[in-house]
Design a protein that fits this description.
The protein has a 4-stranded parallel sheet. α1 links the parallel β1 and β2. It has a single domain, classed as Response regulator (Rossmann fold). The two termini are 27 Å apart. The chain contains 5 helices and 4 strands. The protein is 38% helix and 13% strand. α1 crosses α3. The protein has 159 residues and is α/β, with parallel strands linked by helices. This is Arsenate reductase. It is an enzyme of class 1 (oxidoreductase). Keywords: Arsenical resistance, Oxidoreductase. InterPro entries: Ptyr_pPase, Ptyr_pPase_sf.
């Protein structure tokens, strides 16, 4: 199954989601990421954080949802609607869920405070992805309604 992590800029949240997902994914599951208005670059703090967590950073780049290598089966939006951010709506016959996370690219303050914002985003996404992989995916991938219900509940996980 192909999972698309989608946000606006494809420089932080969706890249972190893609990398964490692929790092933890069992055989048959693969993530990709994209943005509705990609920035054209991955935020260096995202790459540094992934590397420090032992997750490969090779091959990640900011890209448009118009350039996906394959069609997704599941789309996970990561934009934070609480911040009045417009969440892109992927059009296509896919299962959709929203795992909103604040964009650490907009964090301000000291280097430590900005690093903490990136770490919080990482921890939330990792906890949600770990919860996703704890599901009985062999059964749920054949029951889209049940899978959507479980994925929508995962959106409430915070750390």
């Amino acid at each position: 199954m192909n999972v698309l992590f989608l946000c606006t800029g494809n420089s932080c949240r969706s890249i972190l989601g893609e990398a964490i997902f692929n790092h933890l994914a069992p055989a048959g599951w693969r993530a990709m990421s994209a943005g509705s208005k990609p920035t054209g670059k991955v935020h260096p703090r995202s790459l540094a954080l992934l590397a420090s967590a032992g997750i490969s950073t090779g091959g990640y780049y900011s890209k448009s949802w118009d350039n996906l290598p394959t069609a997704p089966d599941i789309v996970i939006t990561a934009c934070a609607s609480a911040a009045r951010e417009t969440c892109p709506a992927y059009l296509g016959p896919v299962l959709r869920t929203h795992w909103g996370v604040e964009d650490p690219a907009h964090a301000t303050g000291t280097d430590e405070e900005i690093d903490a914002a990136f770490m919080e985003t990482y921890r939330i996404l990792r906890a949600r992805i770990e919860a996703f992989f704890a599901l009985n995916l062999d059964v749920l991938k054949h029951d889209k309604a049940a899978l959507k219900t479980k994925m929508d509940k995962i959106a409430n996980i915070v750390v």
